[in-house]
Specification:
The protein has about 150 residues and is an alpha+beta fold. It folds into 2 domains: about 1-55, no CATH class; about 60-150, no CATH class. Helices cover about 25% and strands about 35% of the residues. It is built from 4 helices and 10 strands; from the N terminus they run βααββαβββββαββ. The protein has helices at about 25-30, 35-45, 65-75, 110-125; strands at about 1-10, 45-55, 60-65, 75-80, 80-85, 90-95, 100-105, 110, 140, 145-150. The strands form 3 sheets. The chain has a 5-stranded antiparallel sheet, covered by helices on one side. Strands 8-7-9 form a 3-stranded antiparallel sheet. Strands 1-2 form a two-stranded antiparallel sheet. Strand 4 and strand 5 form a beta hairpin. The radius of gyration is 21 Å and the shape is elongated. Bound molecules: zinc ion. Zinc ion (ZN) binds near residues 103 and 124.
């Protein structure tokens, strides 16, 4: 997935704003990670206008951080089993799995670490995990798995 943040002048910045530091210097420092994005935007007198979707794969993982950021900034909506990037273009993903614990034997969603261990011990006793990467027989997902909704 490739997203592009598109900015517009901050209407609240106004005319009487004192001359700030050199915009090129702010951009360079931002690129080096020396100043947070929000601070750089403010210093440049910009606000986020929209987030364009430049490239979207059929299957896409979304970190909880990205989803939270998108919801707070208003360019992404999550709900009813969907993650919608408002773009342009508007791009929707059906959520296949969300953050949490899942059995690698049967795929069941499990309520936390202890429940995952108990489930594997009870439902799949004596069976080796089908997934060498998760020898305990369960995995912990920390992101959303999305499948693109084609229109
Ligand atoms: Zn299971």
């Amino acid at each position: 997935m490739k997203l592009k943040r598109v900015y517009k002048p901050d209407p609240a910045a106004g005319e009487g704003r004192p001359p700030g530091p050199d915009p090129a210097e702010i951009r360079a420092r931002r690129a080096l990670g020396e100043i947070p994005r929000r601070e750089a935007e403010r210093a440049l007198g910009l606000v986020l206008d929209h987030v364009a979707v430049l490239r979207a794969k059929a299957r896409q993982n979304f970190s909880t951080k990205l989803v939270e950021q998108g919801v707070v900034e208003g360019w992404l909506t999550a709900g009813r089993g969907l993650i919608v990037l408002h773009g342009p273009p508007e791009t929707a993903y059906r959520v296949r799995r969300g953050p949490g614990h899942y059995c690698r034997h049967c795929g069941d969603a499990l309520e936390g670490e202890a429940a995952a261990r108990a489930h594997v011990a009870a439902a799949h006793a004596g069976q080796a995990s089908p997934d060498p990467a998760h020898p305990g027989g369960y995995e912990r997902l920390n992101h959303f798995e999305g499948e693109k909704v084609e229109d």
